[in-house]
Design brief:
This protein is 28% helix and 26% strand. The chain has 400 residues and is α/β, with parallel strands linked by helices. The strands form 3 sheets. It has an 11-stranded mixed β-sheet with strand order 1-3-2-4-7-5-6-8-14-13-10, sandwiched between helices. The two termini are 32 Å apart. Bound molecules: zinc ion (ZN).
Length: 400
């Protein structure tokens, strides 16, 4: 089917774009498109795929929901109206917005958040699962498609089915994205970046990702011709780049900063030591080591200047899977200066002096990623303990 321009057909967008329901029981898939309003390609792809798949309804198992993210921003073609809807999903922020004690009128995104929250909660309460959550995005720079995945073994195991590179552990650098909130609830949840915002191929790539997801979750049979063709599209456009990468540097900006990237950088482009990447408040920005660049900022809104990434060696992935399954991290509080942050034992408080002796890779190995400072202690959080692994144990991909 022919793709149309990403900016068309977005007025009067309902929250639930479409629903697919199979004749047999199966998984529940939740796709969100356009949580950033200047990224309509995911919404358009969802509309097209769901329409195409309605014709093969008899072959479906389970249920899939296509949901619109920031509707008011989508209608204006802006990333957001008052605040970034994909940075509002920390536990505290969600609770604050639900209580709504403020005397000030709510921001546009607070209204969007409440609706989105109610929609997701309704699905989680009324459907059976296992649940899969996919957040569809595009980037301001040119890019091959890739997945952004919070680091737990469940996410890793599911995400490695896709023929696309994976950025692991992004939760350490982003405050309050929706997919981290869903991960905290224990479900498989990750993001897909389908290409540059206004690249017509972004819709095609999103469609390929959605078809692959329908197959990998067991909703649509892999021998169906639509699945085969679309998974091949994703494979072809990743230019041979695959495997898992992790961020090791984040160039952060303040809202008021003047930041201009040098032209021509794409995601996964190699950059060299001392290369001038950008101008920040009139000063040149250089880097200290060779790396690959990730998410260089080529738009006016946003405070992430760029990230630097490196591939994660296979032995590290395997070793960390073994150590986490053995729950080695439960021994860490034996060390002086390390204690549990709560009775739930999902976060550790590490004395600031002691934290300096541990390489960050050490915490990553044991599954501790997102971190904040609190009263002279480093708080590191582990997502393994909340993962609802049992829900997924009977699924075909779990044993692949
Ligand atoms: Zn986005």
């Amino acid at each position: 089917m022919k793709s149309v321009s990403p900016k068309s057909k977005l007025l009067k967008q309902p929250r639930i774009i479409d629903v697919l329901e199979g004749s047999e029981t199966g998984p529940t898939l939740i796709f969100v498109g356009g949580i950033h309003g200047n990224e309509p390609a995911g919404v358009q792809a969802l509309r097209e795929v769901f329409k195409e798949v309605h014709y093969v309804n008899g072959l479906l198992k389970g249920k899939a929901f296509a949901i619109a993210g920031n509707i008011s921003a989508l209608q204006k073609g802006l990333r957001y109206i008052d605040q970034d809807l994909n940075r509002m999903w920390t536990k505290e922020s969600v609770e604050q917005h639900l209580e709504n004690n403020s005397e000030l009128p709510p921001t546009q995104e607070a209204i969007e958040m409440r609706e989105l929250y109610d929609t997701l909660q309704h699905i989680l309460k009324t459907e059976v699962g296992p649940f899969y959550f996919f957040d569809l995005h595009t980037t301001s720079s040119k890019t091959i498609p890739f997945l952004t995945v919070n680091d737990n073994l469940l996410n890793r195991r599911f995400a490695k089915q896709y023929p696309a590179p994976i950025i692991l552990g992004i939760e350490e650098y982003l405050e309050g994205p929706l997919l981290s909130y869903i991960n905290e609830l224990g479900y498989v949840a990750f993001g897909f970046e389908g290409g540059q915002h206004d690249d017509s191929k972004a819709i095609e790539n999103h469609k390929a990702f959605i078809y692959c997801s329908l197959e990998f979750c067991g909703m649509l049979h892999h021998q169906h011709s639509l699945v085969e063709t679309n998974c091949q599209i994703l494979d072809n456009c990743c230019e041979g780049i695959s495997g898992m990468f992790e961020i090791f540097q984040h160039y952060k900006l303040r809202e008021s900063d003047q930041f201009i990237m040098q032209p021509g950088y794409q995601n996964f482009s190699s950059v060299t030591k001392h290369e001038v990447l950008a101008s920040h408040n009139g000063k040149p920005v250089t880097i200290a080591s060779n790396a690959k660049i990730f998410m260089p900022l080529y738009q006016h809104q946003g405070t992430d200047g760029f990230f630097l990434i490196k591939p994660i060696p296979n032995f590290f992935l395997k070793l960390s899977a073994i150590l986490r399954r053995w729950k080695i991290h439960h021994l860490l509080p034996i060390l002086p200066g390390v204690r549990w942050a709560s009775a739930k034992k999902d976060a550790l408080l590490v004395n600031r002096k002691l934290a300096r002796f541990f390489a960050r890779d050490f915490f990553h190995l044991l599954g501790y990623r997102s971190k904040t400072m609190k009263n002279n202690h480093l708080v590191v959080r582990n997502r393994e303990s909340v993962a609802k692994t049992k829900l997924y144990k009977k699924e075909a991909w779990f044993h692949a």
